Amino acid sequence: MLSRQIPRNHEGELEHLVVEPKRPSVGIGKKEIDQIERYALAVAKDERFRGINTEWHFWIISTDYDEYADIKLNAEGNKEGVLFRFTKNIDVTVLLKIWSQLLRENNHRVRFIRNKLNYNINSEQALQHLKKTYSEYIEGIRITE
User: Fold this and answer.
1) Where do the domains of the chain lie?
2) Cα separations (Å) of 1 from 22, 37, 61, 142?
């Protein structure tokens, strides 16, 4: 599980993103959905998180999902990708994402930035940035240039 706290554009507002990536060989079904919903409900019940201006987003990601997940995704009133939403006392949303969807969304963002801001970076510049910024995390990893 990965998580990140993201400051919002107003003072005192926060967003938490909690990501549960699954191996490509593990499709998302009832077991996986129950697991991520338990995490979300644990946060919703925790008194430490009540009364603060925070949104919680829990993502479960894999390459595919089964019929149970499809039924949950298509429940009446759910927005696209939403499995579960709780807004009493705390704002918690559980979303299902598939890798191809994430790649498509983020490729679109990269193209937008390049086109609108006229911003380009090549692979060599990207590798230099990774080596400089994250050297302690990539130590021992062979990076071909």
Assistant:
1) 2-98
2) 9, 13, 11, 25
